[in-house]
Amino acid sequence: MQTRFIVFISILATFSLLECLLKRRRDPNLYPSNIYRRLSNIALLMFGSLLLFLWNHFLPLVSAYRATDFGVGLIPWLGLSFEASVILGFILMDLLIYFQHLLFHKIKILWKVHRVHHLDNLLDVTTALRFHPLELILSQLIKITGVIAFGVGLESLLLFEITLSSFAIFNHANIQLPKKLDKFLASLFVTPNFHVIHHHPKLHLHNSNYGFCLSIWDRIFKTYESAKVEDYSEFDCGLDSEYRDSFKGMLSTPFRR
């Protein structure tokens, strides 16, 4: 867990710096609102992490230990090599998160919780931290179910968790990659330009591009959308709400009509 935390902080710091050097879009929020928005996003993660410490840091790993020890799940049943098991476990967990994300958009009660994430009107590294504690709980329950059903080993789970958090920061970062590089990476992975489409206020756009790490799932299941724009610097982001930048407002959003 210490390794995962160190990697997370390192990636967060790296892309925070890159946002200063490769900024894609100017912050539409004026000072001090722009600082307040970022602090609220960070506070939401800190509150959720404190509230859900056991959920976030122990339960999925305990499930992985048990699944491995008792040979439970699909992967042990297949009898693959260690390397193949780690890779398959990672791919299956990434697919699971794709469907989890899809369900959080399609099921109304889940959307009310996930909507907190979509209220941010500028994508940057702090948007990757902006998830309601209820979503963290539900996500952990889904991960535990997947770990047991697939028989995902500890090494595979750690690889997945580190990659997931790293890509969440990367694909929310307010950076402009060279177009050719972004297009090349997006053929397999989720990039900032790929994911920013998912945060557009138009319904058909934010109901697309659900992938977090691998972009292939959106292409396979036909949920991929291309913005067809040359310049992403003015690409609209975020749903409208008077509560979107308030820590208290974010916590109460799922319970409002």
What does this structure look like?
Pfam families: FA_hydroxylase. Its main location: membrane. It is found in: Membrane. The chain crosses the membrane at residues 6-22, 42-62, 74-99. Residues 86-223 form the Fatty acid hydroxylase domain. This protein is an all-alpha fold. The chain has one domain (2-255). Helices cover 63% and strands 0% of the residues. It contains 14 helices and no strands. It has helices spanning 2-21, 33-51, 53-57, 59-69, 74-78, 82-106, 108-118, 133-150, 154-172, 179-186, 192-196, 203-206, 216-220, 247-252. The longest helix is centred in the middle third of the chain and has 25 residues, at 82-106. The protein is globular. The relative contact order is 0.16.
Give the structure's gist in a few sentences.
With 257 residues, this protein is mainly α.
Which key terms come to mind for this protein?
63% helix, single chain, 257 residues, 14 helices, mainly alpha
